[in-house]
Amino acid sequence: MRTIVFVIINRANYGRIRSLLLKIKRNKFFKVKIILASSTLLRNFGKIDEILRKDGLKVDYQVYNHIAGENNETMSKSVGLLTVELTTIFSRIKPDIVFNVADRYEILATAIAASYLNIFLVHLQGGEKTGSIDESVRHSVTKLSHLHLPSTEAAKKRIIKMGENKKNVFNVGCPSIDQIKKINLKYNVNLKKYNFGVGYKADLKKPYIVSLVHPVTTDINESPKIVNLLLKIIKKLNYQCVWIWPNIDAGSDKISKIIRKFREQNKDKTKINFYANFENEDYIKLIKYSKCLIGNSSSGIREASFLKVPSVNIGTRQNLRERAKNVLDTRVNELDIQKSIIKQFSKKINTSSNLYGKGNSTDKIIKILKNVKLDTKKIFID
Amino acid sequence: MRTIVFVIINRANYGRIRSLLLKIKRNKFFKVKIILASSTLLRNFGKIDEILRKDGLKVDYQVYNHIAGENNETMSKSVGLLTVELTTIFSRIKPDIVFNVADRYEILATAIAASYLNIFLVHLQGGEKTGSIDESVRHSVTKLSHLHLPSTEAAKKRIIKMGENKKNVFNVGCPSIDQIKKINLKYNVNLKKYNFGVGYKADLKKPYIVSLVHPVTTDINESPKIVNLLLKIIKKLNYQCVWIWPNIDAGSDKISKIIRKFREQNKDKTKINFYANFENEDYIKLIKYSKCLIGNSSSGIREASFLKVPSVNIGTRQNLRERAKNVLDTRVNELDIQKSIIKQFSKKINTSSNLYGKGNSTDKIIKILKNVKLDTKKIFID
Amino acid sequence: MRTIVFVIINRANYGRIRSLLLKIKRNKFFKVKIILASSTLLRNFGKIDEILRKDGLKVDYQVYNHIAGENNETMSKSVGLLTVELTTIFSRIKPDIVFNVADRYEILATAIAASYLNIFLVHLQGGEKTGSIDESVRHSVTKLSHLHLPSTEAAKKRIIKMGENKKNVFNVGCPSIDQIKKINLKYNVNLKKYNFGVGYKADLKKPYIVSLVHPVTTDINESPKIVNLLLKIIKKLNYQCVWIWPNIDAGSDKISKIIRKFREQNKDKTKINFYANFENEDYIKLIKYSKCLIGNSSSGIREASFLKVPSVNIGTRQNLRERAKNVLDTRVNELDIQKSIIKQFSKKINTSSNLYGKGNSTDKIIKILKNVKLDTKKIFID
Amino acid sequence: MRTIVFVIINRANYGRIRSLLLKIKRNKFFKVKIILASSTLLRNFGKIDEILRKDGLKVDYQVYNHIAGENNETMSKSVGLLTVELTTIFSRIKPDIVFNVADRYEILATAIAASYLNIFLVHLQGGEKTGSIDESVRHSVTKLSHLHLPSTEAAKKRIIKMGENKKNVFNVGCPSIDQIKKINLKYNVNLKKYNFGVGYKADLKKPYIVSLVHPVTTDINESPKIVNLLLKIIKKLNYQCVWIWPNIDAGSDKISKIIRKFREQNKDKTKINFYANFENEDYIKLIKYSKCLIGNSSSGIREASFLKVPSVNIGTRQNLRERAKNVLDTRVNELDIQKSIIKQFSKKINTSSNLYGKGNSTDKIIKILKNVKLDTKKIFID
Question: Under CATH, what is the fold of the domain D191-345?
C-alpha cells in the first residue's frame, strides 16, 4: 500500500487531476492525502475546498502561503513560505509518493520539500515548452523529480534529453481529457447556479464566446493591454461573452482593476457577463457550446482542441506550447485580435484532436504509480 | 556599470570564488554586493565574515537561515526561509546579476529568488555529475539560470544537452585553481595560528596525511561509518594526520559526536590533530605538503589534482565527478581503505592536471560578466 | 545622535505619526529610517509609499508580509513572517530606538524583534481600552516596551498599573491632533483628485455624511451586518454620503463583497460615493465639513472630537475607548442606527475637545526621544 | 469534552508539566495533543521526544523552528518562524485550549498563534519577577492569555494588578513539586544509564555538588564568566561535581566552548563529571542527594527549596524570583562564589519550603481546566 500526497495550488491544478483523484481514492492500494495551498484557499479565486468537498474528497491540510502583493517579489516569497510548511507536513505524513502538477511557480516548493526529504516525486506534464517563467519552473522541477508523466511525445523527448532516465518517463496524455469524456455534455451550464455573475445576463442558447485572460509574468504589461483591447473589441462586435476572472498571479490585480473600471463605465452597454469562477465541469460545458474561446489560457489549446472548439490565443503566454488546428494565434494588436475573433467565431471543426491524449490518462497513471519502483537516487543519463 | 550580488553559503563556496571576488571588486565596471547566509555565520563551521573582512571584502547583508537539526527536514526548511529573505534583499538591491556557486542545497533559494524577480542569474560549476541530492539541485538550478560557467568540457556538454542555449554556456575552468596559483606555496601552514587545534600536535615537517569527511545526504549512515573506520585505521597505521571538521549538513552532528567520543577515548594514543576549520590559503598549503588527502571532499578531486597530491576518495559522495589520475577510489570497507591509504601515501605524481582548468578562470569570468547580454527570457533549445 | 526606526503598518499608522515624521527628520539629532510593511504596500489599501514620497520621506525598507486570506489564521502567520524579516533588518540597521504605533495586530512583530534584540522600544498610544484583540496586542506590547507615550491620562495610569516604571510613561496626547492643527482647513477636499471615486458623484458644498466601517476581529459577523444596515439606511434617508473602504483585516473582503454587490444592484439609486482611500489631510478636511461621521473607526472618537464633528459609533469595535461628547454610541440595529444618524446629522458642537491632546504632541515626543536614557533593562514595579 | 494542546519548547518545560500531562491524558474529559518544538528536537539539548515516548506520551506534531546562531537575532527569528507554523497546526487541530508554560522566549509564538485564532490560552507560571527578557516575555504573554495559573501568591497579585480579571487567576503552586512527590527518592541515579557522561566518573555515594549554568540573555558575558570561575573553583576545592549542559539559548555555544576547552586542558585533574542532560526524575534524585546545587538555574530556587537542598545562586539570572531560605545569592566574583559554595556545602536544611506549592498542583489545574468558561473576550480591569 502506498501513501500518496497531492498538493493542489489552484483551480486549474484541480481541474487537471480531478478524474485522477476521484479514481485513485477508490483504489485500495493507495492512501490519498490532499493538501490545499496558495490561491485554492482564497475566495476571489474560487475556494477550491468547497468544490472538493462536494466531489467527496477530504482536504487533509490547508496552507495559507500566498503573500499579498501580486508581484514577482511576493511570488518568490510565497514559494519560500510554502517550502517551509510543506516540509513540516510531509515529514508528518511520511508519504511514499508526492504528486506535483504542471508548472505554476508554487510547484517548486512541493518539489524541494519532497526531493530534499527523499520522497519519491512525480511530475505531471513536464517537458512542455511555453517560454515564460513557467517554463523554467517546469524544467527545474523535472530535474528534482523521480517519475515524469508528460502529456505529449515532444514533451517526453525533451525530458529524456534533459538527462532523465527513460525508464521513468511516460507519455500518459493529459488527464483533463479524461475529465471531459466523463462529463455529460448534453446540456450547457445553468448560469443561475452562479447567480448569473455580474453585468449582462448571458443567454447560452444564443451564440456566445468565452474570454479568459491570465497575467503574463514575464511581461507585466501584456495582459492589461490584452484585456483593454479585448473589452473594447467585444463591446464593438456586440457579441455575447462570458468573461472569467484571471488566476491569482503577479499582475492579476491590475487586470481586475481594468475590468472593474470597464464595468462601471459600460453598464448596460455590452453583452459581457463576468464570472469569478466556474466549477470544472461547468467550465467544460461552457467551452463546448461556445463559438470560440479567447484569451491566453492553456485550455484554449488543450481542452478546446479535444472539444472541437476554435480558439484565439493572444500574445506570448502560450507561445511555444504544442497546438492543434483549432488554435489561431494572434499578436497583441486591436486589428489582429478582432479579425481573429471574427474568423474563429464562424469556424467549424470536425475532428477532435488527440494531441493531448485520448482520455485514458487516469488509468495509465494509476497503473504506473502502482508499479513504479520508488527509487529516489538519480543520475544524469549522458 | 553592473551591480552583481554574490550569495555565499559556506566556507567551500568562498574558497571557490575568493580570487574572483578579490579581482572583481577592484573592477570599476562592477558594483559588488556580498550576502552571507547559512553556515557562514555559525561559529562551529568557521565564521566566514571574519575571513572576508581580513580579505578586505565588505559584507553587505547577513542572513541567519540555518534551522538547527542537521537532517533532511531542516535542510528543506532552511531553503524555504532563505528564499523568503533573499527575495526581500534582492528586491532592495535591485542587482543586474546574481551569482550562484556550485551545488549546495541552499543555492536553490538564490536561484528561485533571482529568477522569479527576473534578475539575470549566473551559475558557476553547473553540469557536473555526482549522483547525490547535490546533483539534482545543481541541474535544477541550471534550468533557472541564464548564464552557465561550468568547469569542464563534459559539464558544458551536459548543460547544453539539457536545453540551454550554447551562447550562454562557457567552460571557464574552476576558479579555485586560480586561487592556488596565487598562493605563495613555499611555506607550509603555521599551525600556531590555529592554536594547534585539539588533540595531538602535528609536526608538518614530518610526513602527514589530511582527512576530511563530509556527511552524505543520500545515505545518512555512510559517513559515520567512514569516520569510524578512518579513525581506527589512522590510529592503527599511526600516521600523522590533520583532521578537519565536516560541513554543516544533514548528518554533520552525528559525525561530530563520533569524533568527540573517539577523542575522549583515545587521548594520547593517536597522532591525529583535529581542526574546526582552516583559512583557504592555509588549507591549500596543508594539502600541497601532505602525503595524501583522504575522505570524500571534492578538494581531493579538484584542488589535489592540480597540486599533484594523491587522494583517497571513499564512498559514494563524489561518485561520478570527473577525476584525474591522482584519485584512488575506494569502497567503505576497512581493508580497502587501509590499502588505498598506504598505496597513496607513497605515490608520487609528476604532472599537474588541467582537468579543472589552468588557473585563468577569474579573468575569463570577469570578461564574460562584462559583455554578456542580460537577457532573462529563456526557451528550451530542442 | 540617535538612529530611530519607524515601522509603518497601515495608512492609519502613517496618519497618526505624519507630523512627527516630518519634524523629526529635519532634526539633526536623529537619523530616521522608515520601514513599510503589511497593507502599506498593497494597492487596494492605498499604497502608502507614494504618499510618503510626496511628503518628502524616504522609504528605507519594504517588507511584503501580508499573507492573503483575511482571516485570523493569516493575521497570525503574517505577524510571524514580519517578525522574521524585521529581525534581519533591525540587525542590519542597528538602531538606537524602534518606534511602534498604536495597536494593530502586526505591531507585536515589531515589538518582539526590537525587544529580543535589546533595542530601546517606544510605544505610542498604549494603555487604551477597546476590548478587542487590539487591546490584548496593545497591552502585550506595553510589557515589551521601554518607553510609553500614551494619549490620555487614563491610559497613562493603566500603563503604570501594569508594572511599568512611571519615569518612562508620558502622556503626550495624540499626534494626529497636531496634524489637524497644521492643515489649512479653509477649503474642503477636491474630489477630482480622486477621480470622484466610484458611484454617485458627491457635491461637498451640500450637506453630506462620511461613513467608514472596519472589520471587527473578535466578531467576524458584526461588520458585515453594520455595512448591510448602513447602506440600506443611507439609501433610505437619501443623504449624500462619502463611503471609505475598510482596513485590510480578517473580514475586510467580506465587507468589500457586500459593498460591491450593493453598488451593482443600486446603481443610480443612492447618493453614496465610494472611495478606496484618502490622503490624510484630505480625510481630515472631509470630516471637518461633514455633517457627521458614521461607522466604527477610531477617528470618530479622536479626530472628530477635536474637529467638533458629531459622530455615530456603531457596535463594539470602539467599545471602551474614552470619548468626548461628540460621540453617540449605538447598537447594531436598524432603528437605533437610523435614529442616531438623524440626530447627529443636525447636532452642533461648539467647543473642541482636548481629551486626546492640544496639538503639541510632536514637540513633546521629540524632546522625550532626545533625552530619554536608552536603558533596555526592565523590572516589574510592584 | 475539551481538546487541549500543550506546546513543549525545552526539557525544563517538560519537567514542569510532566505530572500534569501524565494525569490529564488519562482523564476522559480531555483530548490531549502534544507539539514538540525548538530545542526539544535537538540532540545536543536532549531529544525530548524519546523521553516522552518512554513516558507513554504521544507526540502529535514536531516543529523544527530553532534557527542556528545562538544569539539575539536567531532568538527573535525562531519565534517568528514558530508563530507561522503553530498557526497552521492550531488551525488544523482546532483545540478548545492551548497551554503555555513559563517564560522562555518561544512562548510568545504560542501565545500569538492561540490568541489571534481566538483559542482559549492558559498560562502556567505567569506573574513572577526575574528581571531579564524572560520577564518581559512572561508579562507580555500574560496580557494575551485568558487563564492564569501562577505558582505563588505574589505572582498572582501581580497578574491581577496588570489588569487581568481575578476570576481567571489561580495560585496553583508549581506542578514540578507534584512531580517530586511522586518520585521514589529512596535511591539515587544510576549514572551507568548515561554512560557515566564525559570526564571524571562521579561516585554518588560520596559527597558531591551539582552545577548548572544557563546563558543570561540580557548580559551575554555574564555566564561565560561564571562558568570560567566555577570550573576553576571546583577544581581548586577538588569537590566531586556533576556538571549539566546549559539550555540552548543566545550564548549557549560560548559556554559549551569554554567547557570543552577546560575539559581538554584539565583531563584527569578535576573531579568534574559532565552530562548533556538528565531525565527529569533522575535530575531530581541527583539534586536530592547532592550537598548543594550551584549555578543560575531556577531549580535551585524551586525544586531545591522543596527538597531541602542548599543552593548557591550566582549572578543576575534569577535576580528577583521569590526564594526560600535554602538559597544563598552571590555575585559573579571568585571569592564570593567560593565562600558561598563552602558554606552551602555543609549546611543542613530541616524543613521543606511550600513557597512553590505543596505538590497538589496537578489536581488543582485539571479541575480548573475542566470547569473554566472558555471565554476569549478580554477587557482590562481598571
Answer: Rossmann fold (3.40.50)
